Amino acid sequence: MSNYQGPAVLIAAGSHFEVHATLSAARSGAHGGWGGSVQTDDPAEDFYTALERGQVKIRLPDGREGDVVATRTAIGSGRLRVSGSGPTPF
Which domains does the chain have, with CATH numbers? Predict the structure, then answer.
């Protein structure tokens, strides 16, 4: 099992959002499923609007990225569930 907990950036619709990510994968670095949650300190409406407009990526501080599907947990909480596809970025 591979895990990551720390800063990240969600990229969507040309916007970048600083988040704290808690991610895990069933197989380290493999093409298996991975995901977790992200939390922003500023849950402004543009954060949610951008994430609903199409492709979303998560970027870690070392530059590695992964494609994710982001799902709201509680409106206004700034917290999202993310499900990754492809290789894990951590």
Answer: 2-85 (2.40.10)
